[in-house]
């Protein structure tokens, strides 16, 4: 992988603007800048892999991050309380506070995007919105034409397909009730080869919001569908993933990436990171991990990572899968307090994403017979046609 000669690269990016944006090129009056700092080789690693990261961030919104010529390219759109993400080759699902939105990549039209022609290799536009209600959706995955989602508020894994607000298909066997009372804070699932294999929760409890009593050390990893507990005593586990046949889990309360033996429960620390770990994706032998600062409004929670509170960062880390070595961290200095989820989009380097309001201003129309961008209203089209007669 190419190495960046300057190991401490700093860039300033403007939310909602895509491209190679440096501080000197931005009108300071338009919007506050997002300051990002590459402490290591994060940008060179991402560029070598020729992919884009979809990042769900807080306070709110989703960012698509790529790299071109060593400089980050960023497209960001504001959405209400963005949470879990799921990706396929041509689709991006985003959970928000009361909706699950599915965006489509209009790749054939991307080079013709009127606001910046001959630049983008992907433009994601809104296609479907499922009105789910407040479910607190965490990990998600596409299962053919439907979305599977960890429905944290209802303590279950659900299908989101539009027939109901959601259809529960699995819940931990120790959870006996059904309702919006978040009994164990079920939050993560490892979806692999068409099946949910493992799930994480912050507590082995059957009381409404009972997980809060021991959230610092009560986390578990379960096998699905049996519900067998394969590991326990974890500090806020999230984002279980099966990678090359091995089970990886983020232990947010310690900032650890763990490798867990499902048969013995043996836990091995792959690496320790300077942030609350939440959101994990692997591509090309590299782990991308979301990092967050602690939520000050909650006060002390007795998490082991709280001893490092002043040194925690919000950003994304790149870790070598084989060795556990930290390759670099893209540190968000401002504008981002938490990273909720991270997904990889292979083969995309310059992406744009339009929220419903942005898309309504410049809508794309795609059919089996082709597509085009609508750049003016029907009334204007009629006036132009009349003028040509």
Automatic annotation (TrEMBL):
Segments forming domain Conserved hypothetical protein CHP03032: 42-354
Q: What is this protein called?
A: TIGR03032 family protein
């Amino acid at each position: 992988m190419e190495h960046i000669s300057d190991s401490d690269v700093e860039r300033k990016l403007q939310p909602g603007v895509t491209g190679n944006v440096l501080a000197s090129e931005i009108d300071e009056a338009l919007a506050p800048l997002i300051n990002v700092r590459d402490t290591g080789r994060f940008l060179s690693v991402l560029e070598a892999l020729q992919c884009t990261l979809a990042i769900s961030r807080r306070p709110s919104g989703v960012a698509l991050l790529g790299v071109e010529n060593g400089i980050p390219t960023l497209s960001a759109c504001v959405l209400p309380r963005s949470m879990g993400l799921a990706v396929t080759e041509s689709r991006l699902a985003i959970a928000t506070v009361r909706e699950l939105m599915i965006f489509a990549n209009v790749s054939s039209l991307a080079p013709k995007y009127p606001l910046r022609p001959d630049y983008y290799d992907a433009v994601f536009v809104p296609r479907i919105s499922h009105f789910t209600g407040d479910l607190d959706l965490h990990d998600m995955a596409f299962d053919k034409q439907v979305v599977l989602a960890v429905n944290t508020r209802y303590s279950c894994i659900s299908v989101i397909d539009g027939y109901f607000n959601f259809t529960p298909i699995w819940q931990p066997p120790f959870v006996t009730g059904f309702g919006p009372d978040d009994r164990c804070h079920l939050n993560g699932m490892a979806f692999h080869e068409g099946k949910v294999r493992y799930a994480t929760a912050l507590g082995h409890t059957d009381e409404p919001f009972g997980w809060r009593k021991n959230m610092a050390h009560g986390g578990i990893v379960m096998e699905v569908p049996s519900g067998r507990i394969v590991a326990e005593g974890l500090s806020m586990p999230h984002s279980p993933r099966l990678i090359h046949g091995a089970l990886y889990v983020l232990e947010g309360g310690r900032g650890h990436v763990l490798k867990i033996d499902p048969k013995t429960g043996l836990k091995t620390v792959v690496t320790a990171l300077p942030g609350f770990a939440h959101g994990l994706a692997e591509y090309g032998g590299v782990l991308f991990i979301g990092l967050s600062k602690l939520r000050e409004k909650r006060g002390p929670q007795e998490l082991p990572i709280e001893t490092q509170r002043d040194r925690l960062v919000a950003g994304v880390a790149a870790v070598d899968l084989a060795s556990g070595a930290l390759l670099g961290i893209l540190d968000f200095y401002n504008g981002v307090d938490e990273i909720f989820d991270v997904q990889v989009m292979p083969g995309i380097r310059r992406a744009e994403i339009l929220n419903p309001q942005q898309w309504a201003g410049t809508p794309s129309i795609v059919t089996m017979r082709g597509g085009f961008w609508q750049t003016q209203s029907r009334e204007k089209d009629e006036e132009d046609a009349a003028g040509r007669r």
